[in-house]
């Protein structure tokens, strides 16, 4: 198996908004509220209050709350029909413990207006506007990417005295069905009023994403429609894991808590249950070697931030090692040869003079200077900076030794212009508390490393928290060699054990990588910025945002691979390869089919013509990976987490509605492809280890500006059925495509529904995928819609 259920426990923190909304709701639930961006709660107070709300609902003024890429909160007021002055008593944000002013004093809005709020950088919680008539306008920020809302509502109880329950009322053939952890379901006819208590964390699945209000507050009673499924966080005393309301009337009520629709900010598409597994020392992805054709193999960044979601496992051979080879002069001051400006010590490594600078124990906020590259599992390497994970701390000596104690040490390293290496380390190892493919592994975590060449500040973050930071000399430039290949999973495929520079390993090459520099485990999204992000921006990204979008150079989602023909290496030109043949490559050679260069292409979703990567081949090929026992759906940098066993037992549909403004790069007619599956190669061999691979039943509809343009589905046997397309020939050919002429931004809504076959076993990998590709004007084949073309609505 590739993973156990417990791999996903660490993902609970990704339910992003809840820590903000809990105290927020305690403030607002006793007062009327109104969400101007589509969620309406009209106050029932005086006629004047009603009239004011009516004007606002009509767009006078239309109010939008925007979080800019630089992390600043902005309110925009725009009058659509007439000018009706809006008097505001106060604008507030929640600082974690209380509501505080976001804007000083009162404000009268009598014409179109934009104001900047006094909120913390990258604040993404709710803003509460209180008007002169005591109406409350509750807003949430608009960002790059799209908004994904599900047909799932989650119960949150404030304390042990809080409660929630559903009431079932007798009616003609009123029935409920009980689903058990073991055994067959049972059905009960309701003959008298019945009350069922709901524990904290209960999930309510509805037929669609608008069946209930987005928030059900304390004291509210809301009707539940037929088809509602209640899934408990743990089996009841009688073994019930879920109940389904089959007929007639039921309500839900909360006291001292709230029920919240599960929505999140999606950075883009595809949405997929796949990660990329690097399950041996050989696995990697890398760019093609562009320097042979006059290009660069990496972005050559001075200021940069690396973001990597990662699950390291015990297959990492190498303990973390920062090797320093002593010269006759020895280290002087803080670094070798007098520090980064003092030259490089001479002499080659030997068993007598090679030491691990971490041998006495790693320390936070300490710059470790070395004349050789750190050893360990390179999760990602940008050409002059990288995130390194060691399996313990390596033994001192030559050759370097492994740690192999299944406690993983995390480091961020850079190579300076004079070839000196500087590394910072988190002194607190991350323990292996679960398993991945039969190996000891950590839970999923986000690692970030940043370097600012102007200030000399170098920082390392784990799960959004700063764990080590140092101040180097200002204006210390990085190496910036165009030769080193940007890589994920490994950086070297030679036999030397100590390296003064890292060459990287080209993608699409049949090779074997060095166990001293190779990562083992699974990876989620890889994001590389050309700026040093602030701590607030790192935390914002950890909680699902995407700061400074225009400063992203590389985004590999690690859940999406396309089999491509490679027509030109530099500048890179590829097109989808529809062949079922596998690429052939001798050791160290590129993959080909009948002389045509082909490979497994990992698109850079911010710029598809630059820094695309390719899987290695042969022993270096990664693995399409989907965890067993838990279901994780990735869209950009944000996951949704489900229990697939319960979904299978209940036969429950899960619906995800993706909404965004689609911004074309140029005007013209675009052909779109709705991808029910464009899965990474290898899932029918490497992933399941001779078990059956299971595909969900998938259903998709696409609307542009409210008009249906596509409707179709894919059954679990991977048969696609096109029910409607605005291109009639697509229906005839049963191809999931449609067309649209784009002259500017349009609203796109994708409604994706899946359910899991009833015979699914948690010992089997589960495939779920939906993506959107297009053929832009002038293109000859489909390419993914870049993330830059998805934006949440600004109003």
Topology overview:
Layout: H1 18-28, H2 47-57, E1 62-67, E2 73-78, E3 86-94, E4 99-103, E5 107-109, E6 113-116, E7 127-131, E8 136-139, E9 146-157, E10 163-168, E11 175-180, E12 186-189, E13 194-197, E14 203-205, E15 215-216, E16 221-224, E17 229-231, E18 240-245, E19 250-255, E20 257-266, E21 271-272, E22 275-278, E23 285-286, E24 304-312, E25 323-325, E26 354-356, E27 368-370, E28 377-381, E29 385-391, E30 407-415, E31 421-425, E32 430-431, E33 434-436, E34 439-441, E35 445-452, E36 457-462, E37 465-471, E38 487-488, E39 521-529, H3 535-542, E40 552-556, E41 562-568, E42 573-576, E43 592-593, E44 596-602, E45 613-615, E46 623-625, E47 631-635, E48 638-642, H4 644-650, E49 654-662, E50 668-675, H5 683-687, E51 694-695, E52 697-704, E53 707-714, E54 720-725, H6 728-733, E55 737-742, E56 746-755, E57 766-767, E58 769-775, E59 783-784, E60 790-791
Parallel strand pairs: 51-57
Antiparallel strand pairs: 1-2, 2-6, 3-4, 3-5, 3-7, 7-8, 9-14, 9-20, 9-49, 10-13, 10-19, 11-12, 11-18, 14-17, 15-20, 16-19, 17-18, 21-47, 21-58, 22-39, 22-46, 23-38, 23-45, 24-35, 24-39, 25-26, 27-31, 28-29, 28-38, 29-30, 30-31, 30-32, 33-34, 35-36, 36-37, 39-40, 41-42, 41-44, 43-44, 44-45, ...
């Amino acid at each position: 198996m590739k993973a156990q259920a417990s791999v996903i426990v660490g993902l609970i923190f990704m339910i992003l908004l809840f820590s903000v909304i809990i105290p927020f709701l305690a403030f607002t639930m006793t007062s009327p509220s109104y969400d101007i961006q589509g969620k309406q709660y009209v106050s029932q107070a005086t006629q004047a209050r009603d009239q004011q709300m009516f004007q606002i609902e009509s767009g006078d003024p239309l109010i939008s709350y925007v979080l800019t890429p630089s992390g600043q909160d902005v309110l925009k007021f725009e009058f659509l029909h007439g000018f009706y002055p809006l008097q505001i008593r106060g604008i507030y944000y929640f600082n974690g413990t209380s509501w505080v002013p976001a804007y000083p004093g009162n404000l009268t809005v009598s014409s179109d207006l934009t104001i900047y709020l006094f909120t913390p950088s990258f604040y993404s919680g709710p803003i509460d506007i209180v008007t002169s008539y005591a109406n409350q306008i509750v807003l949430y920020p608009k960002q790059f990417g799209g908004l994904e809302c599900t047909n799932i509502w989650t119960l949150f109880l404030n304390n042990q005295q809080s409660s929630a329950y559903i009431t079932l009322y007798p009616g003609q053939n009123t029935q409920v069905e009980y689903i058990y952890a073991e055994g067959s379901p049972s059905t009960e006819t309701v003959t008298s009023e019945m009350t069922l208590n709901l524990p904290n964390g209960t999930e309510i699945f509805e037929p669609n994403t608008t069946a209930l209000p987005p928030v059900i507050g304390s004291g509210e009673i809301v009707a539940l429609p037929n088809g509602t499924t209640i899934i408990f966080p743990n089996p009841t005393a009688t073994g019930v894991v879920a109940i389904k309301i089959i007929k007639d009337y039921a309500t839900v009520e909360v006291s001292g808590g709230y029920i919240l629709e599960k929505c999140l900010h999606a950075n883009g598409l595809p949405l997929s249950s796949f990660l990329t597994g690097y399950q041996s020392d050989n696995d990697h992805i890398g760019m093609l070697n562009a320097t042979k054709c006059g290009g660069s193999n990496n972005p050559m960044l001075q200021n940069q931030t690396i973001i990597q979601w990662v699950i390291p496992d015990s297959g990492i051979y190498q303990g973390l090692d920062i090797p320093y080879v002593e010269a006759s002069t020895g280290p002087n001051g803080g670094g070798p040869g007098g520090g980064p400006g003092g030259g490089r010590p001479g002499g080659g490594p030997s068993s007598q003079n090679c030491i691990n600078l971490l041998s006495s124990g790693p320390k936070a906020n300490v710059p470790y200077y070395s004349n050789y590259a750190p050893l360990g599992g390179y999760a990602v390497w940008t050409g002059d900076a990288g995130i390194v994970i060691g399996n313990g701390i390596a033994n001192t000596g030559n050759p370097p030794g492994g740690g192999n104690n299944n406690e993983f040490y995390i480091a961020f390293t850079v190579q300076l212009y004079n070839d000196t290496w500087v590394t910072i380390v988190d002194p607190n190892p991350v323990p292996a508390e679960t398993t991945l493919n039969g190996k000891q592994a950590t839970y999923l975590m986000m690692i970030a490393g940043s370097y600012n060449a102007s200030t000399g500040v170098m920082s390392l973050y784990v799960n959004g928290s700063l764990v080590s930071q140092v101040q180097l000399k200002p204006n210390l430039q990085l190496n910036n060699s165009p030769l080193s290949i940007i890589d994920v999973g490994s950086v070297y495929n030679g036999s030397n054990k100590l390296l003064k520079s890292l060459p990287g390993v080209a993608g699409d090459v049949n090779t074997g990588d060095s166990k001293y520099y190779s990562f083992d485990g699974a990876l989620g999204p890889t994001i590389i910025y050309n700026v040093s992000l602030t701590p607030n921006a790192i935390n914002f990204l950890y909680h699902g945002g995407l700061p400074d979008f225009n400063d992203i150079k590389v985004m590999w989602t690690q859940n999406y691979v396309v089999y491509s023909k490679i027509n030109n290496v530099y500048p890179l030109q590829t097109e989808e390869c529809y062949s079922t043949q596998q690429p052939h490559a001798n050791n160290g050679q590129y993959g080909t089919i009948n002389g045509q260069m082909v490979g497994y292409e990992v698109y850079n979703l911010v710029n598809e013509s630059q820094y695309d990567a390719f899987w290695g081949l042969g022993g270096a090929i990664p693995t399409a990976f989907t965890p067993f026992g838990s279901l994780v759906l990735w869209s950009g940098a944000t996951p949704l987490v489900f229990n697939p066993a319960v979904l299978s037992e209940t036969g429950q549909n899960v619906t995800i509605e993706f909404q965004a403004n689609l911004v074309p790069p140029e005007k013209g007619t675009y052909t779109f492809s709705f991808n029910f599956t464009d899965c990474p190669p290898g899932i029918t061999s490497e992933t399941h280890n001779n078990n059956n691979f299971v595909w969900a039943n998938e259903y998709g509809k696409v609307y542009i500006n409210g008009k249906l343009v596509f409707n179709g589905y894919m059954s679990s046997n991977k048969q696609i059925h096109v029910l409607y397309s605005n291109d009639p020939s697509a229906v005839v050919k049963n191809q999931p495509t449609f067309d649209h002429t784009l002259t500017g931004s349009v609203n796109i809504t994708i409604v994706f529904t899946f359910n899991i076959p009833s015979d699914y076993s948690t010992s089997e990998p589960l495939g779920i995928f939906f993506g959107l590709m297009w053929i832009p004007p002038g293109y000859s084949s489909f390419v993914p819609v870049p993330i830059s073309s998805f934006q949440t609505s600004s109003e």
